[in-house]
Design a protein that fits this description.
The chain is an alpha/beta fold and 321 residues long. Helices cover 48% and strands 11% of the residues. The chain has one domain (10-319): Metal-dependent hydrolases (TIM Barrel). Strands 4-5-6-7-8-9 form a six-stranded parallel β-sheet. A three-stranded parallel β-sheet has the order 1-2-3. Helix 5 runs parallel beside helix 6 (145-154). The longest helix is centred in the N-terminal third of the chain and has 21 residues, at 73-93. The chain is globular and about 60 Å long. Residues 1-5 have low confidence and may be disordered.
């Protein structure tokens, strides 16, 4: 464990499947290995056992992609309520070990905002998660502003999580390699490119001017954006651009997690660019095994105080855990 024995370890991007919701995408992950399926469907004994073995005290659990983001409003709104209620029931069985991000029916932004408020106020959830495009639309579009307005009012974050890229992007960028390298569309590149684009658009959209206390979270050490912030900011300062303080805005409104990204050099870059207070530990369970993450965090070349902030202190502050 970490060198400070009093330090809890909290992870924020840890997934599961609700069977009713996952049934809407029966073919999406038909090739998922049986052991992965078993872990995605478990919110009890196996999950807790593997948390204990790795020294993880709390998981903030969220539904895996694409969640409700591809369903029509008439299906997504009532289904989302049932999904969140079932997750809340699982958390009540293990209230000291689990917390949650809400599944949001983005096809109806007003209903999604109401569901976020219900899950936070009535069920104790810690925020919401949106997976990739919402029925083909980037969520910087004005129609989704009710969700972000409600998140600001509730003082909870929205986690922008990846999903499969738009079909037109797959056709243009990946089709020649998708068969031999299926992960190219996902964790190897497609997820990163799509989600980083989402985050860039959020900064350019003016949503943070409209909602100055809004907080967003990106996984995978910020989907590569911390490395690129200086260049993006510098390029957008050239003549002919609408004025935007991209780097400052990003660093003021985004937190990033270590989910599935256990690299010393990438972490140190992110610390230097974002500040250690905006980095939160995550594993990306069960798509990543638990043990390598805490072992890596223990060994990273940071002082004990900074390790404790990343391991749990920052999450406790952001999510009021």
């Amino acid at each position: 464990m970490l060198t400070k024995p009093s330090c809890a370890v909290i992870t924020l991007e840890e997934h599961y499947w609700d069977e009713e919701l996952a049934a809407h995408f029966a073919g999406l992950d038909a090739g998922a290995p049986p052991e992965l399926r078993k872990r995605l469907l478990d919110l009890g004994e196996l999950r807790l056992k593997e948390m204990d073995e790795a020294g993880i005290d709390i998981q903030v659990i969220s539904h895996a992609a694409p969640s409700l983001q591809k369903l029509a409003a008439d299906v997504a709104v009532p289904l989302g309520r049932r999904v969140n209620n079932r997750l809340a029931a699982a958390i009540r069985r293990h209230p000291t070990r689990f917390a949650a991000f809400a599944t949001l029916p983005t096809a109806d932004p007003a209903a999604a905002a109401d569901e976020l408020a219900r899950t936070v106020n009535e069920l104790g959830f810690k925020g919401g998660m949106i997976h990739g495009l919402a029925n083909g639309q980037f969520v910087d579009d004005q129609r989704f502003r009710p969700i972000f307005a409600r998140a600001e009012a509730l003082d909870v974050p929205i986690y922008l999580h990846p999903a499969i890229p738009h079909p037109a992007v797959i056709e243009a960028y990946y089709k020649e390699y998708a068969k031999d390298f299926p992960m190219l569309l996902r964790a190897a590149w497609g997820y990163t490119l799509e989600t980083a684009t989402q985050a860039v658009r959020m900064v350019l959209s003016g949503v943070f001017e409209a909602h100055p206390r809004l907080k967003l979270v990106l996984g995978h050490l910020g989907e590569g954006l911390p490395f690129l912030l200086w260049r993006i900011d510098h390029a957008l300062a050239r003549p002919g651009q609408k004025p935007v303080h991209f780097r400052d805005t990003f660093r003021s409104h985004f937190h990033v997690t270590t989910s599935g990204f256990f690299s010393d050099s990438a972490l140190l870059c992110t610390v230097m660019e974002m500040g250690v207070e905006r980095i939160l530990f995550s594993v990306d369970y069960p798509f990543e095994a638990n043990p390598p993450g805490p072992r890596w965090l223990e060994s990273v070349p940071l002082c004990d105080d900074d390790k404790v902030k990343i391991a749990s202190g920052n999450a406790q502050r952001l999510l009021r855990l």
